[in-house]
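Run folding on both entries below.
>entry_1
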Amino acid sequence: MNDIWWQTRGEGKCHLVLLHGWGLNAEVWHCISEELSSHFTLHLVDLPGFGRSQGFGAMLLEEMAVHVLKQAPENAIWLGWSLGGLVASQVALTHPERVQALVTVASSPCFSARDGWPGIKPEVLAGFQQQLSEDFQRTVERFLALQTMGTASARQDARALKKTVLALPMPPVDVLNGGLEILKTVDLREPLKAVQVPFLRLYGYLDGLVPRKIVPVLDALWPQSESQIFTKAAHAPFISHPAAFCEALIALKQSL
């Protein structure tokens, strides 16, 4: 069984595992890793098949969580952005004893719109899957542009994300398709009611992929969790608002 790419830095007593989103890799955390490594021991991860974690095919969410757990510290705050939020949530559901706190960033327990639930229209995700096989790089770039749309620094933020993608080998099409399949099909709304660990959910007010309408719905569904919305951020608040983002994590650490 292959090992995934994993880097540990910083010397804080509190461990923080950072899981990136679809199509990307751990380089997305570049803008906040220096600040965070003075407060935490950081664990930077490339999810299976992405970035430097080569040699993996498409996976189910449960399989992805198993691979990430293999190298993880015994106890840590698990933070997942977008698709990574589903992986971190899955770890909290199956191995709560390993999770000091769960943080999801611009993530939804159910990314796909269904039965009155706001989300990405399934046909949009299906369209991305079809386009991937036709024009791989352009499809990934379009998805990245969607993530920063609406923010004051949208162009700059999209450039930062694109640079992250292009800095490392592109994931194989089947891995990208597998990730889209997770976004299209997984629904953790009910299971996450049972999570007992401290649970912080961070959102961007302008996010076009995870609509802010879900925030009050989840506040009611998961009263044990807390939510925070960055008013001028979109899908990547840690890139557009790094200082405020780090403050939220440091405050969480202090509350544990």
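>entry_2
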Amino acid sequence: MSVDLPPSPLLTAPGAVPGAPDQPDAAVAWHYGDPFGEQRAAAQRAAVVDRSHRFVLTITGAERLTWLHTISSQHIAHLGDHRSAENLDLDLNGRVLNHFVLTDIDGTLWIDTEGERGPALLDFLRKMVFWADAAPEAAPGFAVLSLLGPKAQEVADAAGIGALPGSYEAISLPDGGFLRRMPWPTSDSFDLVVPRDELPAWWSRLTGAGAEPAGMWAFEALRVAAVRPRIGVDTDDRTIPHEARWIGGITEYGAVHLDKGCYRGQETVARVHNLGKPPRHLVMLHLDGSADARPATGDPVTAGGRTVGRLGTIVDHFEFGPIALALVKRAVPADTALEAGPMAASIDPDSVPADDEPQAGRMAVERLRGR
């Protein structure tokens, strides 16, 4: 199936510059004339970002949670009311097909994901219902806004929203929809899922309450700095959850619970967790901004002419300059001189995940061998 969402009505806001036509954010504003100022607002004050190009769907029915629990990676069978989580859809080999955020409120499970991937995810969910009391449906009448920044509570008070929830918790909004707290791209991040025909009203309400308009450039820069992947941009068709930092339950801000029943792709997740190591890991790169040309998403990362990784999101950050996410081979030391297309690159050492602890399965094997 296909659900085509029109360009956001907020593109008529003063200063709005849409994303490039060939990019995933073409339907919303990339910035409003001051990209670095918008990033500062989102990191230091309060900003609102139009993310209405995300695909929203709902699942109703008494078995919506227990059913989705059996076919996805997160432990959500007993997710409480007004609670949220991140989740993955994997293929049989454990490769990531979809990443999505879900919130359960008053008997309806809300899911939002990347716009171009939403129809395929919905199609998969419908095919997997069988006899379960669960009914997935597209919800094109709803859209996502993100409120970011340490002054978000001040904005919420002025906008009549009230006390903001804790991480992965949600509150219902007075005119329909809901607001949930996310642990990224900053520690003060909130998504509002609101009726699409009320997007302009909510935009005016939030900006009137003190939130500064910010484009997807700001959101992406903060996301990259937080080393949070975006499906289909920072991942490829070989990516497994361990490589992209999605391992962990809800309290660990992950999307893959390691102590739950069988689901598609679980064998790979369990094998890597217990016996092996992921072949690549997600890191942040600092790029040399003096180069005349820029690399593109999907370009190889090389060391001494040898390909050692793949570039994901590339963005200019208001403090760090040009940065990128990349899937790089685990064996590459953090101090290796790299090239990303025409630019010199270096791994941010603080972004390298610590995964040197021995796995329980490997230790058990060694004990059986008397070592």
